[in-house]
Inverse folding.
């Protein structure tokens, strides 16, 4: 049940996130020069070779989207490739949802002007190369819905301009590397539906620009108090983990939260009295399959934005909610 609720929440939020990611990936960057220099010519050749190396690693291309990747046209006109018009350096690599099968070569790190990578919804396998850390202009990395394994590369920590890190639905193992604490510009962190383990790092509380936080399903321990510092957060999803203890009260004061889910854990304690007041933008509130006690906060029932409420069986409906249910049945 907890897992199905997580999927439901993702289906509701995915159109928004998809649009946001595409927006991030279509962002333009300032022109580096009005004319091509010899250095840029060399860089362009480096980019071309890196793209051809990626093509070699793709073993299945049922829609023939890489058919244009040859010397008959300039690589800036290849399908899925967007270049800076002046420097002819690759800015965006967008090959999502083409049923591609293959792996990522280390040479992807040679595309040093990349601001966006979107390979979502394919069948890429193998590990994410450490060389991706060379992409220091990267703002959006979307490798979600593939079959990538291994650990999260620690060298991603060098991509300090990163705003979107989406590794959702792969086979990634290990823990969240502490090196990722350098990604202070992150707006979106999706790393759930993987095989990551460990505890929630307290340093996530330093990501003051974070809007959406989706963590994996195998984390243990308590929820760090530091997460209460994420004052820009709109989506807080820690569902289907092995978390215990109480939810830090500071999290209930993040007024920007729209979607809140801690369902299917081992959390306990009483629910706060006024989440409908302290969280005025709240639309979904999932806390079922936990050990919470007390009554459903009346302020949630009076909130005009609430669409979905999910509570544990141990939580009493309370007089106000019973009155509402009786009125609906009458």
């Amino acid at each position: 049940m907890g897992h199905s609720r997580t999927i439901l929440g993702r289906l509701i939020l995915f159109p928004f996130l998809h649009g946001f990611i595409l927006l991030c990936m279509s962002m333009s960057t300032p022109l580096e020069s009005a004319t091509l220099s010899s250095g840029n010519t060399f860089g362009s050749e480096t980019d071309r070779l890196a793209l051809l190396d990626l093509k070699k690693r793709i073993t299945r291309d049922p829609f023939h989207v890489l058919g244009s990747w040859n010397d008959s046209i300039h690589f800036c006109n290849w399908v899925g490739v967007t270049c800076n018009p002046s420097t002819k350096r690759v800015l965006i690599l967008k090959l999502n949802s083409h049923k591609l099968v293959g792996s990522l070569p280390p040479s992807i790190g040679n595309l040093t002007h990349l601001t966006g990578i979107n390979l979502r919804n394919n069948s890429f396998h193998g590990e994410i190369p450490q060389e991706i850390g060379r992409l220091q202009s990267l703002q959006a990395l979307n490798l979600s819905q593939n079959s990538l394994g291994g650990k999260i590369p620690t060298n991603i920590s060098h991509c300090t301009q990163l705003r979107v890190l989406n590794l959702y639905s792969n086979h990634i193992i290990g823990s969240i590397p502490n090196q990722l604490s350098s990604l202070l510009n992150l707006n979106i962190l999706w790393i759930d539906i993987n095989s990551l383990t460990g505890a929630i790092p307290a340093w996530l509380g330093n990501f003051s620009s974070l809007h959406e936080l989706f963590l994996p399903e195998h984390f243990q321990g308590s929820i760090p108090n530091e997460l209460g510092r994420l004052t820009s957060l709109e989506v807080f999803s820690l569902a289907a983990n092995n978390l215990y203890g109480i939810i830090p009260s500071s999290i209930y004061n993040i007024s920007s939260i729209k979607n809140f889910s801690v369902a299917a854990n081992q959390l306990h304690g009483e629910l706060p009295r006024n989440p409908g007041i302290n969280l005025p933008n709240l639309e979904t509130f999932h806390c079922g399959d936990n050990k919470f006690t007390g009554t459903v906060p009346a302020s949630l029932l009076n909130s005009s934005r609430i669409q979905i409420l999910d509570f544990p069986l141990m939580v009493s409906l309370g007089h106000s909610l019973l009155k509402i249910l009786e009125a609906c049945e009458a």
In short: The chain has a mean pLDDT of 86. The longest strand covers residues 90-94. The two ends are 30 Å apart (CA to CA). The chain is about 20% helix and 20% strand.
